[in-house]
Design a protein that fits this description.
This protein is α+β, with helices and mostly antiparallel strands and 169 residues long. It is built from three helices and seven strands. The chain has one domain (36-160).
Length: 169
């Protein structure tokens, strides 16, 4: 009879040990998952903030340019054409994929140092340099989470159609 109780106790200990190992595994998995999710959201937020900053600069530029002629509305294409020249902007280039604009950069005075070239670091790897005339028709500003940017009134901030995507709201 004693051997039976020892056997049951051993099985109980084994089951408790397996339960603890399983629980530890689940906790470690959740920690890894949360950190990975936070990292991805952080990268997306960084891209969205870069695009928002570039859009704000383009809107300021459009306001300055439009101050002389209020009869011409500013379109998203006009803003995009100005935006994609800013370093740090997240763009998609036809035939090459998505990437971040590395050049042109801003000078110490906050002006774009325009040498007629735009350099993009693509997500799939590698950098590529484009002439401005070739780049503008092939590139478009993109949301890092796959949404679509829209611009309302000239004085308002651009917004994204992805639900819950914080683009400055």
């Amino acid at each position: 009879m004693f051997a039976g109780r020892a056997g049951v106790a051993a099985v109980d200990m084994l089951l408790v040990g397996l339960a603890l190992v399983s629980l530890l595994g689940l906790v470690l998995f959740e920690i890894f998952h949360v950190r990975t999710t936070d990292r991805i959201l952080g990268e997306e937020d960084t891209c969205a903030r870069k695009n928002l900053t570039a859009l704000r600069r383009a809107m300021d530029l459009a306001k300055v340019l439009g101050a002389a002629d209020d009869s011409t509305p500013v379109t998203l294409l006009d803003l995009q054409t100005n935006v994609i020249h800013f370093k740090g902007c997240f763009v998609e280039v036809e035939g090459h994929g998505r990437g971040t604009v590395l050049h042109p950069v801003l000078s110490e005075n906050g002006k774009v140092e325009n040498d007629g070239k735009v350099k993009v670091d693509f997500q799939k790897g590698g950098e590529m340099e484009f002439g401005l005339e070739d780049f503008v028709p092939k590139a478009r500003l993109v949301c890092p989470v796959g949404g679509t940017y829209s611009v309302g009134a000239l004085g308002s901030l651009p917004w994204c159609n992805v639900p819950g995507h914080g683009l400055g709201h």
